[in-house]
Amino acid sequence: QLNITLANSRIKAGETTTVTFAFNEAVTGFTRDDVVLSDANGTLGEPTTSDNGRTWTATFTPTANVEDSSNTISVNLAGVTNTAGTAGSGQASSTNYGIDTRRPTVVAITVADMHLGIGETTTVTFTFSEAVTDLVL
Ligand SMILES: [Ca+2]
Ligand SMILES: [Ca+2]
After folding, report:
1. Measuring CA to CA, how many Å separate 69 from each of 78, 94, 99, 100?
2. CB-based neighbours (< 5 A) of ligand 2, an ion
3. What is the pTM of this model?
4. Cα 72 to ligand 2 centre (Å)
5. Pairing of strands 10-12, 97-100
6. What is the pLDDT of residues 17-41, one digit of tens each?
């Protein structure tokens, strides 16, 4: 039995997060090769344990320019063995997490009046690829 949790379940551009793999007993042989990342949209560092094999952590780095609200990290339990030497079976999956590493871009800038005289004002419209906050001109 294995619980997989991510410290941050909504990962943004420039962020990484810690993934914790909590087994119900101490295991050996747990490496990155046992982790299934086909639905992860990112890469994982090598898992390390600080309590002799029961809890493991690794750093997850999301793929750039991805917007996907449905992602999971899984582990092939056949790749790990308990202290009695018995290999696990089946797969364990993390709960769902979201990734938004797509940076907004400016799609269009339009000026209402292209022929301004002295003292006139006009409206400039900025259109972004997605909603943005904190626009500073
Ligand atoms: Ca997905
Ligand atoms: Ca293994």
Report:
1. 29, 14, 6, 8
2. 29, 31, 34, 79
3. 0.80
4. 19
5. parallel
6. 999 999 999 999 999 999 999 999 9
Joined together, the tokens standing for residue 62 give 């999301």
What ligand is nearest to the CA atom of residue 80?
2
Instruction: Give distance in angstroms: CA of 97 to centre of ligand 2.
Output: 24
3-7, 12-16, 112-116 — which is least confidently predicted?
Answer: 112-116
Q: Which CATH number fits domain 2-100: 3.30.70.1060, 3.30.450.90, 2.60.40.1180, 2.60.40.1220?
A: 2.60.40.1220
d(CA 109, CA 60): 37
Closest ligand by atom to 42 CA: 1
